[in-house]
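Quick check before the chapter quiz. The format below is the same one you will see on the exam, so make sure you can read both the input and the output lines.
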Amino acid sequence: MKYLVTGAAGFIGSSVAAKLCAAGHDVIGIDNINSYYDPSLKLARLENLKPLEKFTFFKMDLSDKNAIAQLFEEQKFERVIHLGAQAGVRYSIDNPHAYLDSNVNGHLNILEGCRNNGIEHLVYASSSSVYGTSNTTPYKTSSAVDHPISLYAATKRTNELMAHTYSHLFNIPVTGLRFFTVYGPWGRPDMAPFKFTKSIIEGKEIEVYNNGDLSRDFTYIDDIVESIVRIQDVVPVKDEFDMSRPDVSSAPFKIYNIGNGAPVSLARFIEAIETATGIKAIKKFLPMQAGDVFTTHADTTELFKAIDYQPVVSIEEGISRFVSWYSEYYGKR
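Here is the expected output.
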């Protein structure tokens, strides 16, 4: 098949593109390679993809309506995996317009491309942040998600509503994935595994929010990619509308939590980095940050049932692999 993968220079997007190419699919990747974090890391990910004959890259901004429309018209995609977005909860507080441009207008341009070009399945990235400050765990996709506490979360919830509208109006099979914390080699520098590892190796203190009383549903990159590649083969179909289940759509539309399904305490997470690096962390305890949540815990029952796969990499093994990559990559630099 022929795929469009947006955010192809990103952490998850580059890995998904490589996995699809390895399976024999043709992949067109796009990314604007912005400077939200070090662009050299994004370019290095693309270097890994260059040798793949099945992969073609175009530098392109999701918010460029005409460029996206032309890309769809010329390339004749069969499926779209839309992972590109302006990421980061805290960054959205100071840079709100970047989120509207990429996450809302960019998402609309992708939906329009799918609408006008007969795409057989759109899989797009949402986020666990849509659950806001909900203290009912594990998070279920049927739960109310009407109170986001960051602009990033608000744009991701907007993506879900827009996707459902297009699925309903134009009969486009659409699957949304609410990502929980993804980590591993080639990960993002703004994420805790990267920031903590860097500081611990450099002998600098790490900032531990809410006195360490936090937990996250960490999921290793290989487990995430395997789940994405499997779910794109599970094309949603229309269900008969059931008045007793208002959370079930009659459109060919699904939302899944995509994560490990087992939260890890911040203490265990830090210990895993200490073990992998052989260095004791210097901790600075701070209060809770605005826009942050105490815990994330995905109810992944529906996803695991749909794809017959569960994550297999433990936090200790995953962190060990990440630290090995980090040491090698930045050691050479």
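If your answer matched, good. Residues 2-332 form a domain with the Rossmann fold fold (CATH 3.40.50.720).
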